[in-house]
Amino acid sequence: MEPILNIENLSKTYGNAPSQTKALNGITFQVMPGEFLGIMGSSGSGKSTLLNCIATVIKSSGGSIVMDGENLNSLSGKALAEYRGRKIGYLFQNFELLDNLTGRENILLPTSLHTVPEKESQQRLSQLAEYLEITDVLDKFPPQMSGGQRQRVAAARAMILQPKMILADEPTGALDSKNAKNIMEKLSGLNRDEQATILMVTHDCNAASFCKRILFIQDGVIFHELRRGDETQRDFYERILKVMAQLGGGSSNVL
Questions:
Q1: 0.70 surpassed by pTM
Q2: Spatial distance between the Cα atoms of 147 and 93, rounded to a whole number of angstroms
């Protein structure tokens, strides 16, 4: 099986000499189709920079990012828009929903921008809404929804174009523990039942315990890797905590 994402010797430098900062310093890893990969690290470790490079929000300083056989550095114009719209779905920490659109309209916005037929759009919406348990808020506006409902609406929007990969940036960061667990169970279910490929940046050990593999970043390099075997989620969580303690981070126990 070929990797869906192949990152080789990726670097990102901010500023000019002699006061340059290396946010990424030679990152190399692969993501396989259907994988649920977590990226963890303390604040300033480079994890968000890495996600933003993959999302093409920022441009790397060196190395390569190959997604589904395409080198992202070579994309521009229509091809870049197609990548951002169809190859990846982005799930933000603060939802990034449009307050003047209903949940339904927010979710369907990508399908109208990318000219998906109406019947197909509605079919996908119905399936996602049922799975994510948001059918009852489709006609509400974001300010009328709870934080958990907004994040599940945002997840449906990220999935509506059936992207090759979901990029999740601290998806539980704005949620309480109950809603955080709920959205992680939904993402885990999408990975398990729909074989959705998910790359998630998080500092939360509870959220990370839903992943199948975790890369830990420190000072712009991969510091450690954990794979979940046949162990329980609780045992995996404990192993994550031990690594984060070495990195100077941690998480409260709310599993």
A1: yes
A2: 11
